[in-house]
User: What shape does this take?
Amino acid sequence: MSAGTQPSGHARVAADAAARGLEVEIFPRPPAESLAEAAALLGITPSDIVKSLVVKRSDGTFLFALVPGGRSISWPKLRAVVGVNKLKLPTPDIALEATGYERGTITPLGSTTAWPVFADEEIRGRRVAMGAGEHGYSMFVSSDELIAAFQATVADISAPE
Assistant: This one.
């Protein structure tokens, strides 16, 4: 597919989910000013919203960290699980280049490169909401099915915000 015919963000997410046999529900949603407001709009608790963060390694490769709402990456924990001594959040333009998605819409589904996925253990066993590849859309997905679809590494990688 040439760059000019690349499907929209949420269409890429849907196509990748279908290819993986992963059931997702993608829907338009209004913007929210906070995690609490977003959760209220979706009718869920803040911890049921999962942030997909793209993280840069010192060798120039990336990984996805999936962290529940109300928590943030614990850098020491994530470095220990990944087995490296340096990780950082890239600038928005580098994150876009690494995934094909703008910050706030990032998801491993449909990423332009299939980076490894590390999921915080607290997301297991839930139906979660995540970004769906473009602003104004979210998706619901089973966290356990998402973890399985990506053969994600599940570990304690977060801390309360």
